[in-house]
Amino acid sequence: MPPNLTAAALRRGRAIVLMAIAYFVLARLGLLLAIPPGYATAIWPPSGIALAGVLLYGARVAPGIWLGSFVANAVTAADLSGLPALLHSLLLPAVIGCGAMLQALFGAWLIRRWVGFPGPLQREREIIAFLLLGGPVGCLLSASIGASALVLAGVVAAHAWAFTWWNWWVGDSIGVLVVTPLVLVALGRPRRLWRRRALTVAGPLTITFAAAVLVFVWTSGREQARLQAEFDARAAALASALSDNFDDYVGVLYSLRDFYAASQDVESEEFARFAQPALQRHPGLRALSWNRVLDDGQRAAWEQAMRAGGQPGFTLTERAADGQLQPAARRSAYVAIETIVPDRGNHSAIGYDVASDPVRRAAMERARDSGQPVATSRIALVQDASAARGMLVFMPIYANDQPVETIEQRREALRGYGVGVFLIDEIVATAVRGLAPQGIELRIREAGARLLCSYRDPGPCRDDGMEPAPAARGTLLWTSEREFAGNRWRLDLVSTAEYEAAQRSLVAWAVLAGGLLFTGLLGAFLLAVSGRAAVVERLVEERTRALEAANVALAHEIAERRRYETRLQEQNVELVAASRAKDRFLASMSHELRTPLNAIIGFTGILLMKLSGPLSAEQEQQLRTVRSAADHLLALISDLLDLARIESGAAELSREPVDLAEVLAETQRTLLPLAGERGLVLALQVPDGDWTIPCNRRAFGQIVLNLAGNAIKFTPAGRIDVRLARIADGSGERIQLSVSDTGPGLDPEAQARLFRPFEQLGTPARQEGTGLGLYLSQKLAHQLGGHISCRSKPGEGCTFTLVLPTGE
């Protein structure tokens, strides 16, 4: 092989090996941040270094990514029980490694295609696209392949695929956001630019990453302590329930002893009547029996009595070496099963010499000498050799007329044993069912650490001694020793991975994910800041020049504004002077204008009264025209003077108690002649009650007069209704005055112009007045603390509503 090819192959091999080592080391570090169980971690650093490796050194390092991932996963997944099992267990790490390798290649292709690399990554758009394509988008591949492989391999349940995928994707994405910038700072090109980022990017990223990890470690420790405390409380409750249940079962044997103590002899039927209710209440109690103590001299007579009782061919039995029952050998004493309930399924045990078995005999001797119930170990029952978790509890029963203070006295007074056949799995299941959350395993061990029962809800007890698989083991353990029927048992309650996954909150995971996500976003920000330093310097110079030009323009604009403000101030002074001149003119002209007009109106009225002689029709018409013009001019002058006072703020309205009903009545009397002339009905509707409120009588009267007068003026036929009412709204109680007519109504455009000064909305042929009535009325209403509104439709008339506060 040519030397240059050899060197290239060595460089390629070295790159692959280095990538594999780096991936493996970072994978082990990532597992240190995993949240047990399940190795779910909020950051997977190898994804970041894999992407950076492909970007910097090309696809040649891809085999190293696969190798590092394969080794990292094979360390925990390898099954060394045999070659077939080993090969099968290594298939899943191989698939996961392919996903990691393809993800790095895919992310690098996206970045080169849409961002361009190698490059300095100076602009924000480039940096954001780089991190999004390499992180959240590129990491879709490995998460999908890995989660699906775990489900197909049976490691993860199908319903947990989405959660597994989410954890995987988040961990890989954050790994890219945090680790890839650090690798580029160390190895990226151009080196001058990336070297400048060592302090501005790598330093803050490292500090922030370390802080996030420390907070996670603290939070994870608190979370583990919480889980242990909750587990201890549950375990203690389970152990207590189990002890109470066993005590309840043993209590049946105490009741049986008392039953025998109260009788000289107990017949089989009496024993059955006693036992049946106890068996029904205790599903873990397989049978109750009476075992009589016989010496060899009593054996023949007892066997004969049993045959006479309906069991022909009856004989005392024991187990042979092959486990089958055979006639018992001759010995000095026997403990024979005389009565057992229920008989069905247990009949073969009648006549069995319990003392022929060393295990049973040892338990009976301990019970006899102590006077207390004693349990055997786990044994095969005579009537059912398949019930591997059967257990016998012996309760000694003594003669009633003999003392039992000492061991010797108890041995002399012993009549027999009340025996309970206990099924351990049933007793355990009934005790803890509903109390044990799924995923807690209860293990009961006898002295010598022999496993008596292993129970998980749901499921039966196991006594095969098998420990759970490593992937299923939890980290929580609670141990206690309890006394049961003369035996010392150790209760071990162990959590499983399933339990811890169900009980663990995502606080620690969220803390780590949030901290690392912030670290990644900080890295993006720092990359943008440092990468655009040169651009910013150039922009600063350009913008400095632009700012100087803008300052000149701004100074010019400020000068112009100041000149404009000076001119406005001068014009404002002129306007104030003109307003004051207007006020003085109106004040001086009020008397000068009204006096001649009142004289004209007065003398015209005298002439129309014909006191100086008769008038022709033409003369009377001309006088009425003069008087109408004078009245119109006087109303215009009054409205203008009122408007001037209101606009200048000089019209201060005093408040005093005003009876609104009285003002309305006066207005009605004033307007009735005018309404009668036009053929209209003017109706006043005031409910009974006190209508006195703090108000200005003249202003209220003027408003009513304007509203009612307008209604009469613009209503060709029909009626005008004036109504007074009290209403309540969010501001409290208010007074509402409404004036409704049957006139032509107003369209929306006309309603919008109602309260403008000098607006006359009648037809040209019927325009009367100054156009100031509604405008002045609204101004007066505002000064009284109220407002006027209009509701109308064309052809349906108008309703003007005045709302005033009550002053309460």
What's the gyration radius in Å?
54 Å
Mean pLDDT: 79
Q: Tell me how many strands there are.
A: 18
Give the strand content. 15-25%
Spans of at least 5 consecutive residues with low confidence: 464-473, 763-767
What characteristic shape results from the CA principal axes? elongated
Distance between the termini: 110 Å
Q: What is the count of helical runs?
A: 21
Name the structural class: alpha+beta
* Biggest pleated sheet: 5 strands, antiparallel
Helix content: 55-70%
Output the strand order for the largest sheet: 4-1-7-6-5
Give structural notes:
Helix 5 (124-137) runs antiparallel to helix 15 (507-531). The strands form five sheets. Strands 4-1-7-6-5 form a five-stranded antiparallel β-sheet, sandwiched between helices. Residues 464-473 and 763-767 have low confidence and may be disordered. Helix content is 57%, strand content 16%. The chain is elongated. With 808 residues, it is an alpha+beta fold. A hairpin with a 5-residue loop joins strand 17 and strand 18 (798-805).
Short description:
The protein is of the alpha+beta class. It has helices at residues 3-32, 45-57, 62-77, 83-114, 124-137, 140-152, 161-187, 191-261, 268-281, 296-308, 358-370, 407-413, 424-432, 497-503, 507-531, 533-608, 617-648, 660-677, 697-714, 748-752, 773-783; strands at 285-295, 317-319, 325-327, 333-341, 374-375, 390-398, 414-423, 440-445, 451-456, 473-484, 487-496, 656-659, 680-685, 692-695, 718-729, 732-741, 787-792, 798-805. The strands form 5 sheets. It has a 5-stranded antiparallel sheet, with helices on both faces. It has a 5-stranded mixed sheet with strand order 13-15-16-18-17. Strands 9-8-11-10 form a 4-stranded antiparallel sheet.
